[in-house]
Write a structure and sequence with these properties.
Largest sheet: 11 strands, parallel
Number of strands: 39
Structural class: mainly beta
Distance between the termini: 46 Å
Number of helices: 3
Strand content: 15-25%
Shape: globular
Strand order of the largest sheet: 1-2-5-8-12-16-20-24-28-31-34
Helix content: under 10%
Radius of gyration: 25 Å
Number of domains: 3
C-alpha cells in the first residue's frame, strides 16, 4: 500500500473512466476502482508525481480502497467505491463510514440531511442532520466526476450542506442543525464545505446551532463557510456546549439569532469546557438580538488568532444590547492579532463587551465600531465587573484608563473597511493595513501563539503562527517604519497589529516581493529601482542587531 511509483503508471489510453482524458495517468485498478488513494494509516514508501499525483499508487493490480466517494451527479453503481460509482447522497456515505471507518471525499453540489438512497426526495424531518463520525475525515471541494487531491478547490467547486428541506426556499421547515459534531474528537475533520439554511427555532437543544451543533464534541473544522443560518436561541452559525472544536480558515457570515433575546449570531460558546481554538476566521455581518453579534463566550477560554470581526450588529431596540463583535461573559478569552471594525450595538462595547472574567487582548485593532454614532473608547471595548489585559493594541479613543503596554490611538489606515460595495459587513470588507499605518511593526512577537493549526503545512506546530488572515507571512519588516513593537529571539521582524500584515501595492498589481523582504529591490516601494532603494537597504543592513 502506498509503495509503488506514480511516474511509472502509463497514460489512460483506454479512457477507463470515460472522461475523455487519455493523457492522465491510468485512474482505475483491475476492479475499476480508484487508483490514486492515500491511506493515512500507512507511511508512504513509494514515489509521488507532484503536483497532480500526490497520493501514491499501490503495488499490484488492485488498490486498497480506504476512501468513500460521494457525488450527486455520479452515473454508476452508487456504492461509494470510485468517483464514477460514488454515492449520490452524503448520508449514505456517512452510514458506510460509521461501519468501515473510511474517510469521505465529496464532489461539488448540494446535499441535504434528510436525503439518502432510500429517500431521494427527502423525509422533511427537521431533526435530520449530518452527524459526523468520530475519527472520520470528510473533504469537500472536488469537481463533479472527481479528481486527485491536487484538483480539489472548495472555492471553485462549492460543496453545500443545506438545511433547506421541505418547501424549497422557505425556512420554517428547515433542519434544526445542518451538521452535528457531538461526541467527536479532534481527529474528526470537516473540511471544505458551505453550511447554510439551518433554522434552529425549536425547543432546547433545537434552538441553537443551526449551522452546526456540538455538545461534548471537539471536531476539527477547516475551510468552511457558515452562512444564512438562524436560531431562536443561541448560536446561529455554531453552538458549542462543553465543546472545544478547532476552527481554521472559516467564515461566519450573515447568520442570526432571535432579534429580541438571542446571543451569538455567528458563534456561541457555552460553559467552562468550551475552549475552541479559532484561527484565521472571519465573522462578517452576523446579527444577534441581545448580545454578541459575531460571537458570545459564556465562561471558558477560547483562543482567537488572526480573526476579523466586521459589520456584526446587535438589533434589539431601543437601548439594550451589547457586544456587536463579541460579548465575553465570565470567561478568560485570549485574543491575539484580531481586528474589530464596523460592528454596532445599542449599549456599550460595540467592538467587544467584557462582563466579568479576565480576557487578554494583544496586537488587536478596535476601530470604527459604533454605538449610535459614537466611536469613542467605550464604543470600541467596554469592561464591566471584570478586567482586561490589553497590550500592543490600537483602540480608537484610547484613554489609557485600562492600563497596558504599547497601546495607541491612531487611525490604522485600513485598505477599504467597507469594500467596493461601500457596505460594512459583506465579504469584500478589506481591513488590511495601508503603507504608513501606525500599526505596522507595532505588535508584540512574544504574544503570538503557537501554530496549532499548522497554517503553513510544514508540520511544525510549535513555531509562532507564521501567516496572517490572508495567508501572507506574519513576521516581516517594513524598512520605512520605525519598530515600535517588541521582537524576540528568533523573531526579529516585528508583527503588525491586527489580523493582517500590511497591504503592499505597486502600479496595477500587488507588490511582487514579500513585504519587508530586503531581497525585493524596490526598498522604498515607489515603483522605481534606484539609488534610494540601495540607501535604505544599506542603512538597515548596518542597523541589524540580530544573530549572525
Amino acid at each position: 500500500i502506498d509503495a509503488a511509483n506514480n511516474i511509472a503508471v502509463p497514460a489512460d489510453s483506454a479512457d477507463l473512466d470515460e472522461d475523455g482524458d487519455t493523457i492522465e495517468r491510468t485512474p482505475l485498478d483491475l476492479n475499476e476502482k480508484q487508483r490514486f488513494i492515500n491511506d493515512v494509516s500507512t507511511p508512504d514508501t513509494g514515489v509521488s508525481d507532484p503536483p497532480d499525483y500526490l497520493e501514491i499508487v499501490d503495488m499490484g493490480a488492485y488498490e486498497y480502497q480506504c476512501i468513500i466517494f460521494v457525488d450527486t451527479m455520479a452515473p454508476g453503481a452508487d456504492d461509494g467505491t470510485a468517483w464514477k460509482d460514488a454515492y449520490k447522497y452524503l448520508q449514505d456515505g456517512l452510514a458506510d463510514a460509521a461501519v468501515s471507518g473510511k474517510d469521505i471525499q465529496v464532489a461539488q453540489g448540494t446535499y441535504r440531511p434528510d436525503e439518502n438512497n432510500a429517500n431521494p426526495t427527502g423525509t422533511d424531518n427537521r431533526t435530520a442532520t449530518f452527524f459526523l463520525i468520530n475519527g472520520v475525515t470528510i473533504h469537500g471541494g472536488f469537481p463533479s466526476g472527481g479528481s486527485t487531491s491536487a484538483g480539489r478547490d472548495p472555492s471553485a467547486y462549492e460543496t453545500i450542506l443545506s438545511g433547506d428541506i421541505g418547501t424549497e426556499g422557505g425556512d420554517t421547515d428547515n433542519s434544526y442543525h445542518v451538521v452535528t459534531g457531538s461526541g467527536t474528537d479532534p481527529n474528526t475533520i470537516l473540511n471544505g464545505f458551505t453550511i447554510t439554511a439551518g433554522n434552529a427555532n425549536g425547543t432546547d437543544p433545537d434552538n441553537g446551532g443551526a449551522g452546526m451543533y456540538n455538545s461534548g464534541g471537539s471536531p476539527t473544522v477547516t475551510n468552511c463557510t457558515f452562512s444564512g443560518n438562524s436560531a431562536g436561541g443561541n448560536g446561529g452559525g455554531m453552538h458549542n456546549h462543553n465543546s472545544s472544536p478547532m476552527l481554521t480558515n472559516c467564515v461566519f457570515i450573515a447568520n442570526s439569532v432571535d432579534h429580541t433575546s438571542g446571543q451569538g449570531g455567528g458563534l456561541y460558546n457555552n460553559l467552562y469546557d468550551s475552549d475552541p481554538v479559532v484561527t484565521n476566521c472571519a465573522f462578517i455581518g452576523n446579527l444577534a438580538g441581545c448580545y454578541g453579534g459575531g460571537m458570545y463566550n459564556h465562561q471558558g477560554t477560547p483562543i482567537l488568532t488572526n480573526c476579523m470581526f466586521s459589520g456584526n450588529v446587535i438589533t434589539q431596540q431601543p437601548l439594550v444590547g451589547a457586544g456587536g463583535g463579541m460579548y465575553n461573559n465570565s470567561g478568560d478569552s485570549i485574543l491575539v492579532n484580531c481586528t474589530f471594525s464596523g460592528n454596532q450595538a445599542k449599549d456599550e462595547g460595540a467592538g467587544i463587551y467584557i462582563d466579568e472574567g479576565n480576557p487578554s487582548l494583544t496586537n488587536c485593532i478596535f476601530w470604527g465600531n459604533d454605538i449610535s454614532g459614537r466611536t469613542d473608547e467605550l464604543a470600541q471595548l467596554y469592561v464591566n465587573n471584570g478586567s482586561a489585559d490589553i497590550n500592543y493594541s490600537c483602540v480608537q479613543g484610547w484613554t489609557s484608563g485600562l492600563g497596558g503596554t504599547g497601546n495607541i490611538d491612531a487611525d490604522p489606515m485600513f485598505k477599504d473597511a467597507d469594500g467596493d460595495d461601500d457596505v460594512v459587513g459583506t465579504e469584500d470588507d478589506s481591513l488590511q493595513l495601508l503603507l504608513g499605518s501606525p500599526c505596522i511593526d507595532a505588535g508584540d512577537n512574544n504574544s503570538v501563539p503557537a501554530d496549532f493549526a499548522d497554517l503553513d503545512s510544514d508540520g511544525d506546530t510549535s513555531e509562532r503562527t507564521p501567516l496572517d488572515l490572508a495567508g501572507n507571512a506574519r513576521f516581516t519588516d517594513d524598512l520605512l517604519t520605525p519598530d515600535t513593537g517588541n521582537g524576540v529571539t528568533g523573531y526579529w521582524d516585528i508583527v503588525e497589529m491586527g489580523a493582517y500584515e500590511r497591504y503592499e501595492f505597486c502600479g496595477s498589481g500587488a507588490y511582487p516581493y514579500p513585504p519587508g523582504d530586503v531581497s525585493g529591490p524596490d526598498g522604498i516601494r515607489d515603483c522605481y529601482i534606484d539609488f534610494h532603494d540601495f540607501a535604505v537597504f544599506s542603512a538597515h543592513w548596518l542597523e541589524y542587531t540580530g544573530p549572525e
